[in-house]
């Protein structure tokens, strides 16, 4: 049998990282990655369960695959990720086209499970939580990512149990990877050509491995010469410790955009969400960081129309967005997740929810448009990632993660260069490179 695997990925950056690591793993048993669905013999769906009709989306997707292969030999179909973890053997019962269900903490077994299925043709449900074995296994398999900007998972799982969130059930308890293995992986990535590393974790700033904290990791990765930029996501306000705040004073490579989800501007709602902090705590963190480093800006996630959210609670969210001047943020209407506390709460009327979401997004978009407009005519630093598809422009990101599209030079891919911004819209900045790359990569 030819060995081609096709992976479709939904969800967060950690799923993207996992998908790449699954590719790295199945290479060991002779599989190559394909982007052509027609030629695949293993189809893997890496799923997300965070919102909406996640489960139905998966069955819909499998239905499409069934149709695609109706006149051909069926591929081996694997459902991985957070829906697989939450639904496990139910999926095998409901959709016989699925052959293997595998949860995010069992990816170290993926090669064995594929081979077992090919030998025995017997359905497999593999959804144990075993983060230690997973990372021990993956540490021995080279991360082959060559993207200029790559993810690196340092922590997984969550013990916080916010009442709306499914992650503690799908990713299991908090686990921090070995400090030495993370540094090793960061060095491998830099040798592969990676120039920006985003450290990932569901609670990335809760990282703690033998007393090494996130701040230690940042300062150690900073020593890798070829790495130009460091980011991390997603953090929780409760874990924004003094040592991490202080890094913004000394680090030369940590980017000044902090993604620190607040979810709501109202203490009453934060309490109902079980977020374990108040708005005054959040503002204190913001003020400390701004004092230490005035370049710092914040982005956040917001859940709108959480059960019980009154007009006053909602107004407090709008007020906070104005005060903190959040940029590059995400907002979602509350979506009840099976098994979570908030799934039993009374929902807010759909029309009201949609109206509130529109208001919040308008405020967030206005912040973004203003920030981008203010950069017109200035020179900013951009890490050049690649050429844009189908035309002669180049693509990179600003320090604040905003897309920058510009006229440039191929030799600047992987370098931090100065770009003069000529125009902008809500999502992007447009300009041209100034030919004096200061941080050329050797
Ligand atoms: N650990 C991060 C934190 O505490 O902020 C959040 C990780 S979660 C993968 C990403 C975002 O999804 C959350 O910040 C929240 O805004 C959103 N989210 C999670 N559960 C949700 C739900 N039930 N309905 C709507 N949005 C949700
Ligand atoms: Fe979910 Fe984040 Fe809350 Fe954990 S801290 S339960 S990942 S929202
Ligand atoms: Fe989705 Fe799981 Fe990530 S639910 S957001 S893929 S942790």
Attribute tags:
442 residues; alpha/beta; Rossmann fold; OB fold (Dihydrolipoamide Acetyltransferase, E2P); six-stranded parallel sheet; five-stranded mixed barrel; globular; disordered C terminus; binds S-adenosylmethionine; binds iron/sulfur cluster; binds FE3-S4 cluster
Question: Explain this structure to me?
Answer:
- The protein contains 14 helices and 22 strands.
- By secondary structure, the chain is α/β, with parallel strands linked by helices.
- Helix 9 (214-221) runs parallel beside helix 10, helix 10 (242-250) packs parallel to helix 12 (279-292) and helix 13 runs parallel beside helix 14 (350-374).
- The protein is globular, with a radius of gyration of 22 Å.
- Residues 436-442 have low confidence and may be disordered.
- Residues 11-12, 14-15, 48-50, 81-82, 166-167, 170-171, 202 line the site of FE3-S4 cluster.
Helix content: 25-40%
For the termini, the CA-CA separation is 43 Å
Structural class: alpha/beta
CATH topology of the domain at 4-131: Rossmann fold
Approximate strand percentage? 15-25%
Bound molecules: S-adenosylmethionine, iron/sulfur cluster, FE3-S4 cluster
Spans where pLDDT lies below 50 across 5 or more residues: 436-442
Number of helices in the DSSP assignment: 14
> What is the highest CATH level, the class of the domain at 4-131?
Alpha Beta
- Give the biggest sheet: 6 strands, parallel
Q: How do the strands of the widest beta sheet line up side by side?
A: 2-1-3-4-5-6
Number of strands: 22
The named CATH superfamily of the domain at 4-131: Methylthiotransferase, N-terminal domain
Q: Provide mean pLDDT, rounded.
A: 95
Q: What CATH architecture label of the domain at 4-131 applies?
A: 3-Layer(aba) Sandwich
Radius of gyration: 22 Å
Shape: globular
């Amino acid at each position: 049998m030819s060995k081609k695997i096709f992976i479709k990925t939904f969800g967060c950056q950690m799923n993207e990282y996992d998908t790449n690591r699954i590719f790295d793993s199945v290479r060991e048993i002779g599989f190559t990655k394909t982007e052509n669905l027609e030629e695949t013999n293993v189809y893997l769906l890496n799923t997300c369960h965070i919102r909406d009709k996640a489960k139905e989306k998966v069955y819909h997707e499998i239905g499409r695959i069934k149709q695609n292969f109706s006149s051909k030999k069926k591929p081996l179909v694997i459902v991985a990720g957070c829906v697989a973890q939450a639904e496990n053997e139910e999926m095998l019962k409901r959709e016989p086209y699925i052959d293997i269900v595998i949860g995010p903490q069992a990816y170290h077994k993926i090669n064995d499970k594929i081979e077992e299925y090919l030998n025995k043709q017997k359905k497999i449900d593999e959804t144990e939580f075993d983060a230690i074995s997973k990372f021990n296994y993956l540490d021995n398999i080279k991360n082959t990512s060559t993207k200029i900007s790559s993810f690196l998972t340092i922590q997984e799982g969550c013990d916080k149990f916010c009442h709306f969130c499914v992650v503690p059930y799908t990713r299991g308890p908090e686990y921090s990877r070995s400090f030495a293995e993370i540094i090793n992986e960061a060095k491998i990535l830099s040798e592969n050509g990676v120039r920006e590393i985003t450290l990932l974790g569901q609670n990335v700033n809760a990282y703690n491995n033998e007393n090494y904290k996130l701040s230690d990791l940042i300062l150690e990765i900073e020593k890798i010469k070829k790495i130009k930029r460091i980011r991390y996501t997603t953090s929780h306000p409760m874990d924004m410790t003094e040592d991490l705040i202080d890094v913004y004073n000394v680090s030369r490579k940590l980017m000044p955009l902090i993604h620190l989800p607040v979810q709501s501007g109202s203490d009453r709602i934060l309490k109902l969400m079980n977020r374990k902090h108040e708005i005054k705590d959040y503002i204190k963190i913001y003020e400390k960081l701004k004092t230490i480093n005035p370049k710092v800006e914040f982005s956040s996630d917001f859940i709108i129309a959480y059960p019980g959210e009154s007009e006053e609670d909602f107004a407090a969210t709008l007020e906070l967005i104005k005060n903190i001047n959040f940029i590059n943020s995400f907002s979602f209407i509350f979506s009840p997740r099976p098994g979570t506390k908030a799934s039993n709460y009374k929902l807010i009327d759909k029309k009201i929810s949609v109206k509130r979401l529109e208001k919040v997004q308008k405020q967030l978009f206005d912040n973004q448009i203003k920030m981008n407009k203010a950069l017109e005519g200035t020179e900013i630093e951009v890490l050049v990632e690649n050429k844009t598809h189908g035309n002669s422009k180049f693509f990179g990101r600003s320090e604040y993660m905003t897309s920058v599209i510009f006229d440039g030079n191929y030799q600047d891919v992987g370098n931090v260069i100065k770009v003069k911004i000529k125009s902008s819209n809500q999502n992007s900045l447009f300009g041209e490179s100034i030919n004096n790359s200061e941080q050329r990569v050797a």
